[in-house]
Each structure stands twice: as structure tokens, then as C-alpha cells.
Amino acid sequence: MTRSRGLALRELRRRGGEARFGVRLVDLVPGPDHVRAHAVDASGEEWQIRAEYVVGADGANSDVRGHLGITVPDREAIAHLDTAFFRADLGIRGRRAAPGHDRRRSPSTTCAR
Predict the structure, then answer these.
(1) Per residue in 44-59, pLDDT tens?
(2) How would DSSP label each residue in 37-99?
(3) Chain-centre distance of CA 101, in angstroms?
(4) Does residue 11 form part of some domain?
(5) Cα separation of 70 and 73, whole Å?
(6) Rounded distance, CA 89 to CA 108, Å?
(7) Which helix (H) or strand (E) holds 9?
(8) 48 is in which domain, residue-wise?
(9) Among 17, 21, 68, 97, which is 20 to 30 Å from 8 by CA?
(10) Number of domains present in the structure of the chain
(11) Displacement of CA 62 from its chain's centroid (Å)
(12) pTM for the whole thing?
């Protein structure tokens, strides 16, 4: 779990809220002072949820945004990339790393395609 996700979840729970993962949004109806959501999980269990807010943290092809009719104009792929993450000791043999630098904890990244 990313640090920002962990912080957001802790704050949500501190305020009495809850998060559900692996749930698909079926419908979303905004009201004057609330939002009503219909959701279903992989087992088929359904929920009707009434809330003041809905957070659409569901990615680039957001179902939340789609249900609300919010479009993203001029959204088109300008490039397709593959990313590989790896660790490598890029130090020169016989030379010492800078003070405070830990070569074992310094990832190197490359993007290609």
C-alpha cells in the first residue's frame, strides 16, 4: 500500500468512514446534499450506499466519472511505454559511495519501447 493511500485510509476511518475494495460501481445518483451509490462485489453481494461524498480513485477509465457524465476532452494516447524496474550497483569499483549514500537502497529505473 502506498503511503498516501495509507494516510487517506487512516483519516477516513478516524472520521467514521469505511473503504471497500474489489467492489464494482453499478449506479451513482447525485442528490442535492448526498450521493446514492449502488455497488456489487465479486460474490454478488449488493450495497446501497448514501454518502456526502464519493471519491473516484478508480483509475484513468473511471466508472465514477463515467456515471457522473464527466468527460476528459482530448484524452488520447500519445505514446505506449513499457517500464522495467531493477536494482543495480552503478558505483565504480574501488570508489566509495558519497557519505550517507546506500548503494543497496538506490534503485535504477529504465523505460523503453
Answers:
(1) 999 898 988 887 777 7
(2) EEEEETT--EEEEEES-----S-TT-HHHHHHT---TT---S---EEEEEE---SPTTPPPPT
(3) 30
(4) yes
(5) 10
(6) 9
(7) helix 3-14
(8) 3-68
(9) 68
(10) 2
(11) 11
(12) 0.52
